[in-house]
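Feature request, filed as a ticket because there's no other form

It would be nice if the structure record came with a short human-readable summary line next to the C-alpha cells. Right now we just get the raw output. Example of a typical job, pasted below so the devs can see what we mean:
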Amino acid sequence: MKKIISVLLMLFSSFLLSFCSGPVPASTITDVSQIQAEIEIYQSLSNQQDNIVSVILYDKNGKRIGSDAITIWVNQQKVEYKIIHDISYALNYYYRIENVVPKNGQYKLEMQLANGKKFFLGSVPTLKLSNPKKIIANDPASLDKDFTIHWSELHDVNMLYVYKSLELENKQDKNVQTFIEEASDTIRISPDGNYSVKKEQLSRPHEKLSIMSFKFTAEKTGNLNPLLLKESTINIDGYHEKRISFK
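Raw output as currently delivered:
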C-alpha cells in the first residue's frame, strides 16, 4: 500500500511540476534569434495536400516556448497551437496543421511574436508525387527462391527501410505462434532500382520469415531563417510502403 501511495505521489508531483513550470512566456521572446525551431513535415507521395506540419519552439536553454500569442503560418494558413499530456503527464506545447495547400512548389513558414514582429521561419520544397504501382514484386513470395523487388520513377525517394516479421519456432507448444519484428536493412537508393535477398538469407534456424515490409522514403531538408539558433532544423519526408508475405 505504501508503494502505491509513493508512486501516486511521484506522478502527482511530476504533473504539478510540469503544470506549474509551464512554457517560456511569449513576452520574453522578442526576436527570432532567441528561438530554436524544430519543423517536421510529412507529405504523402500520392497527394501533396495530404500533409502534416508540426513546429516545436525552444529558447536558448532548451525549454519549450508555447503560447497562442505567438502565431505561425504555413503558406499563409494559420497553424493551431496545441497543448497535450504525454504518458508521464508532462505538458507538451507545439503548433500543428494538416492539409496545407502547397504554393509555388513549397511550404513556407512565417511567424509573428507577441510583440508584433513578423519573421520568415523556413521553407522546404514539396515532395514529387510518384505511383506506388511502380513497386513490383511477387506476392506472396517463395521462401525457396531468391527474392527481388523492383521499383521505377519514384522521383524524390532516396531511402529504403526494410523490416522483417519473423515466426519463431516454439518447441514447447507447436500450436502457439510467436512473431517478432526487426529492422533488417537501411540503404540509400535512386528513383529506379531493385533490392535482392538470397534464399539462404530469408530464414534462419528456428525462425521463418513471414512478412517483409519495404518503406520507400523521400527525405529532404529545407532552408531556415539564418538568425534562428543553430540547432534549428526543418525536414520533410513521405513514403510508399509495400508488404510482401512469404510462404
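Something like this underneath would help us a lot:
The first strand starts at residue 36 and ends at 43.
Residues 158 and 226 are 27 Å apart (CA to CA).
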